[in-house]
Design goal:
mainly alpha; Serine Threonine Protein Phosphatase 5, Tetratricopeptide repeat; two-stranded antiparallel sheet; 14 helices
Length: about 200
Amino acid sequence: MLWSNNKLIELIETDDFEKFEKEFSKKKDKTERTRYLKFPDWTYLHIACNNKALGVVKSIFKIFSDFPVDIQDERGMTPLLRSIAKEDFETVKYLISRGASLDVTVNNDVKVIHYAIQNGNPDLRTFCINEYGPHNLDNLAYLSIAQILNVQEIMRLKTLGVEFDPAKLKEIIIRVILSDDNEEHILENLHYFLDQKLK
């Protein structure tokens, strides 16, 4: 690993949170504890999330309860987004319980929620959509749903209590179908889906 000469990083990589707590609590300067100084766009929290080290993630907040949970790196990625990218459901749940937002804009108009929708873990995706509030989903989120998910997955989400806006979802799916880059799975059972399931 790139940071293997750093003691704290080594403890993160093994999720040795007890030793990490001891070392990390020695850092009194706010800048030093929020940023890994050799790579200023990374925080120890980002690195812990990237390594799926939930024990260390909890230790960081135990020692510094005011640690900025939505702190972004130079690419706009938050610790929550790193956990989503790693499909680390438990850390995602913990960060959201600490106040991490799915509404943070990463780049342009793309938010953390849009990445969560495209995630390959269906349980994580369902959890994030419900936490965000399906009624808050924007057109880009619905476009992500239409492009990434097949009809069966949308119906699975509905049976788990995700209440999509029928008119908005129908409009976006039709828009994808009419575009040049539509995917075959979006067409699967579409007539039945639109006529029977979104009424």
